[in-house]
Amino acid sequence: MTHPLILDPHRFFPAEPALRTLAARLFAEVEHLPIVSPHGHTDPAWFATNAPFEDPVSLLVWPDHYLLRMLYGQGVALEQIGLAPLGGAPTETDRRVIWRRFAEHYRAFLGTSSRFWLDYVFAGVFGLDVRLEPATADRYFESISAALATPAFRPRALFERFNIEVVATTEGALDPLAHHAALQKSGWKGRVITTFRPGDVTDPAAADFATNVAALGELTKENVASWAGYLRALENRRAFFRQHGATATDHGHPTARTADLSPAECQALLDRALSGRASAEDAELFRAQILTEMARMSCDDGMVMQLHAGVWRGHNRELVRRFGRDKGDDFPLATDYVAALKPLLDRFGNRADFTLILFTLDESTYSRELAPLASHYPCLRLGPAWWFHDSPDGILRFRRQTTEIAGFYNGVGFNDDTRAFFSIPARHDLARRVDCSYLAELAATHRLDEDEAVEVARDLAYRLPKSAYHL
After folding, report:
1. Count of alpha carbons within 13 Å of 287, Cβ hemisphere only?
2. Is residue 405 within 8 Å of residue 376, measured between CB atoms?
3. Distances, alpha carbon 231 to alpha carbons 40, 201, 225, 251, 341, in Å
4. For residue range 414-430, what is the model confidence (pLDDT) as tens digits?
5. Which of 51, 56, 69, 260 lies 20 to 30 angstroms, CA to CA, from 181?
6. Residue from 19, 8, 12, 16 nearest 450 by CA
7. Helix axes 227-243, 209-220, angle to 10 degrees
8. pLDDT of amino acid 396
9. φ and ψ at 331, to 5 degrees?
10. Stated pTM of the model
């Protein structure tokens, strides 16, 4: 027996009839607005080559660490779904069998954002009308595989079908940006830009840090053994990224700590980092100083700065040893912002020509630290509910804990922060519905008028991300 898969047009709206009707009216104003995706991790090669996607497993399962985390937690070994250990081979290579295994565990995602997003993709993008379950696994595999073989499911065609106005990818400082260069020469009208993420050359705890910094020196012809030369090399790469469309930088740090050290102290830190003698505290202080230096550079070149803090990345030591990172074993950390950001804010916090967007996985800081900070310092903006909290209730918690202090216009609207291309329209659809639900509550209780709610909904969905990211 199979069960129907139906996307209810009022999904995620309030259950109370009058609120639901009001939320639906608001959503009708934003449902078809273009998608602005200013921060994400899709592969620029997809758009540069426009090659067809292979199959459901490589498209939907392997790249998605949300799915990997849940499957692993349900006792599914990564080798059983086709992932190869470092230096080894998977125990299962038949992708139809892997898809069946995924279907067997799909019920584990009930109530999660992953389930909401995937059902949207299955029904809204592929036109499937029955649920994914063991009895329908083969039907899904065959239907999706057949669709992916058609021109309508090539990356560029989907970009246009999804009504994407712009999407930003994320590349490391040493990346040659060959795919972005090819896109610029292709004549295709879709806008795909890069984002500068320099952690490979700014984090002494990163693998091959010294080797990467040496490569940075070769690329830029700067003496990266000196602090001044190292900073010039970073400025050089920022300029290179701007030539390929970048408007923003991205910094994924364990904490939000910043520092304002003397040049001599910075040089001593760099010496220890390049020699492999940096302690854990040295590495943290180095990253803290880098954030302040990146803020200074953003004041000079106008790039928007993003800080994603409060994550313990690669928590499962055995999994990292066997498979590397980004396999679903990253977790939230308690994070300080008021004290941690003070050195940076003392120098640049009062500048209105500099933008620092703050993201967190520590929800306890929303009303205690982040909303008050963003409501005061001209440079600060609140990034949307992110990662573990990019969910119906997570987005509502974010709105309820920040709006009364910071309002809507000290935020940046929504961005999807995904490497799963097909989930982009699903994530934006969910976020717009939840924001309209929240706005319906405010309008129904006369905290703002309905015409104001309409304008805010449009701003959250479209205008704010364009403005915040200089797009």
Report:
1. 26
2. no
3. 26, 11, 10, 16, 21
4. 999 999 999 999 999 99
5. 56
6. 19
7. 70
8. 98
9. -140, 155
10. 0.96
**Is the C-alpha dihedral spanning 403, 406, 409, 412 positive or negative?**
negative
| 6: Cα within 13 Å, side-chain hemisphere | 6
Q: Show the domains of the chain with their CATH numbers.
A: 17-52+151-468 (3.20.20.140), 53-150 (1.10.2020.10)
- Which residue in this structure is represented by tokens 């799915």? 67
Name which of 375, 46, 329, 383 is nearest 182 in CA terms: 46
- What is the distance of C-alpha 69 from the center of its chain? 17
Residues paired with residue 331 on neighbouring β-strands, in sequence order = 312
Q: Tokens 């929240």 sit at which residue?
A: 438
Cα–Cα distance for residue pair 92/27, rounded to 1 Å: 44
Quote the strand ranges of 341-451, DSSP E.
356-360, 380-382
Name which of 162, 132, 110, 5 is nearest 60 in CA terms. 132
What is the predicted pLDDT for the residue at 325? Answer: 86
Helix (H) or strand (E) holding 272, with range, is helix 263-275
Question: DSSP characters for 10-76?
Answer: TTTS-SSHHHHHHHHHHHHHHTTSPEEE-S----HHHHHH-PPP--HIIIIITT-HHHHHHHHHTT-
| pLDDT on residue 293 | 98
Question: How is residue 313 annotated by DSSP?
Answer: T
What is the Cβ-side half-sphere exposure of residue 292, based on CA atoms within 13 angstroms? 21
pLDDT at 207: 84
b/e map 424-441, b = 16+ CB within 10 Å: bbbbbbbbbbbbbbbbbb
Which among 457, 393, 378, 392 has a CA at the least distance from the CA of 426? 392
Query: Which pLDDT value is given to residue 1?
Result: 80
Q: Annotate 79-99 with DSSP letters as a single string.
A: GGGTPPPTTS--S---HHHHH
114, 66 contact by CB (below 8 A):
yes
* DSSP bridge pairs for 381: 357
Q: Which residue has the tokens 């069998």?
A: 97
DSSP string, 123-149: IIIT---B--SGGGHHHHHHHHHHHHT
The H or E element that residue 293 is part of is helix 280-301
- Written as six digits, the tokens of 50 are 């426009």
Chain centroid, CA 50 distance in Å? 22
Angle CA 419–321–91, to nearest 5? 75
